[in-house]
Amino acid sequence: MSYVASPENASQTHADKRSAALFSVLAALGITLLKFVTGVLTGSLGMLSEAAHSTVDLVAAGITLFSVQVSDRPADDTHNYGHGKVESLSAFVEAVLMLGSCVWIVKEGVKRIVFHERLTLTHSVWPFAVLLLSIIVDFTRSRRLHKIAQEHNSVALEADAIHFSTDIWSSSAVLIGLAASYAGARWRIPALELADPIAALVVSGIILYVVWGLGRKTVDALLDATPEETREATRAKLEGELMAIDGVLAVSRLRTRRSGSSYFADLTLGLGRNLTFQRTEQITTEATAVVELHLPGADVVVHTVPMAPMAESVHDKIRAVAARRNLTIHDVAVQQFGDELHVEQHLEVKETMPLRQAHELATRLEADIRRDIPDVSSILTHIESEPATIEQPESQERDRQLEVRLRRVAVAFPEILDIHDVMVTRIGAHLKVSCHCTMPDELSMERVHTVITALEGAFKLDAPEVDRLLIHPEPATDNRR
C-alpha cells in the first residue's frame, strides 16, 4: 500500500521547488561575479576564496535546479521507485565541489602565511560593500530554501539552504580579515598582514564542516541507510506501536529508506494463523497508517506470515490445520483419555463431490492434524455436504400448530425466556422450522449450545415430521434483531 500525491499537489510542489532553485541560481551568479571582480582588483585571497566558494555555490545551485527538475518525475518502467535519488546525487556532487575549493583555499593560504606571497592588498570600500550585500542575499535565499525544503521534504534544497547559511559566517570571517589587513597596513602593524589568509583558512574550515555533514547525509541516502527519522528510539517506538495492533504477534524485517523527498518502508508482521483474510487486510491497513505517522507519505509494503500464538488451544490448532488446506470444519469436539486426545469434527464438502474424493480429503486432513498435534491419537470425521445451489421453498409460512408444540416443548427449559418469529418452510417432502430464542444475557455460550441442542432433540421427538430446527439465540436485553 502506498501514498500517491494528487496531480494538483505534485504540480504545486514542483513549481515551488523549481522557483526556489531558480532564485538560488540567479543570486549565486550575481554574487560570484561581484566577488571575483572585487578579489582580482584588490588582490585579497579572502575575497578570492569567497569567489571560489560562490562559484561552487553557483555550480551547486545549477545542479540543484537540474535535480529538482528530474527528481519530481513520476516512477516509470525503468525507475520503479521514482527519480528521487537524483537529489541525493546532486548533494553529493555539491559536497565534492566544496571539498575541491577548500583544498585550493588551504593551499593558497599556507603559501601566503609561510612564504609571505601576495600579502599586499589594494585599499577599497568595494570588498566591504560586496561582502555585506552577499550576507544579505545569502540570508534571504537560505531562509527561502529552508522553508521550501521543509514544506516539500527536499534533500537537495535543504543542502543548498545549509550551504548558503554557512556562507554568511564565511563572508563575515573574510570581512573581519579584510578589515584587520587594512588596519595593519594603515597603522603599520605587521602581525595584521596575515589576517586575510587566516580569514581564508577560517572559510576553508567552515567549508570542511559543511562538507562533512552534507557528505555523510548524502552518502547515507545513496547507500539506502536507515533515515534518521526511524533510528534508535524512534524505531523502537514504531515497533511498539505496530505490536500494539490487535492481532500482531511479531514485527520483523522493518526496513526504511529515503529517495529524494520520498520514503519507502517494508516490514514483515507475524499474525495469528487463524485470522481471516479480511482481518489480515485490516491489520495491514492499520500498520500502514502507523508507519505513515512517522514517515508521512511513505510507500509502505507489509508482508504477513502466519504464526501459532503461544496460548493457542487444541481446537484452534485443528482449525488452523484445516484452514491451511482451505477446508471448512465445524463442531470440533476434543476428549481426553489419559495422555491421549480423541477428536470429533464435521468436515464440509461440496454436495457434488464423489465419496472417494471426500474421503481422501478427510484422510489427508486427519494425517495433518496428527502430525501437527502428536497428542491426538484418534480422529472421527463426519463428512457433510454443503448445498451449492440456492433452495427454492414451496412455501414459507407460520404454522400455528407447530409453533404451539415448539413453545410447549420449550417450557421444560428454564433458561429459555421466550420463543418468537417462528417460521415453517416446506421444500418438497422436507419440513424445516426456524425461530428466535430469548435467553439470559449472562448465560455462557457453552450452556446456550447445550440448551439449544437439547431443545432440538426434544422438539424432533415431539414433531418427527420436521427435518430440521434452526434456532437463533438472543439476549434478553436485545432480542428483536
Topology:
Blueprint: H1 7-42, H2 45-71, H3 85-115, H4 126-152, H5 155-187, H6 195-222, H7 232-243, E1 248-259, E2 262-272, H8 277-294, E3 299-307, H9 314-324, E4 328-337, E5 340-350, H10 355-372, E6 376-386, E7 395-397, H11 400-410, E8 418-427, E9 430-439, H12 445-462, E10 468-475
Parallel strand pairs: 2-3, 5-6, 9-10
Antiparallel strand pairs: 1-2, 4-5, 7-8, 8-9
Helix pairs in contact: 1-2, 1-4, 2-3, 2-5, 2-6, 3-5, 3-6, 4-5, 5-6, 7-8, 9-10, 11-12
Tally of domains: 4
Q: According to CATH, what is the class of the largest domain?
A: Mainly Alpha
User: What's the N-to-C terminus distance?
Assistant: 37 Å
Largest sheet: 4 strands, mixed
Question: What is the fold-level CATH name, i.e. the topology of the largest domain?
Answer: Alpha-lytic protease prodomain-like
Percent of residues in beta strands?
A: 15-25%
Radius of gyration: 40 Å
Fold and architecture overview:
With 481 residues, the protein is an alpha/beta fold. The chain contains 12 helices and 10 strands. The protein has a 4-stranded mixed β-sheet with strand order 7-8-9-10, covered by helices on one side. A 3-stranded mixed β-sheet has the order 1-2-3. Helix 12 links the parallel strand 9 (430-439) and strand 10 (468-475). It is rod-shaped, with a radius of gyration of 40 Å. Mean pLDDT is 78; it is low at 1-8.
Characteristics of this structure?
481 residues, alpha/beta, Alpha-lytic protease prodomain-like, Alpha-Beta Plaits, 4 domains, four-stranded mixed beta sheet, three-stranded mixed beta sheet, 10 strands, disordered N terminus
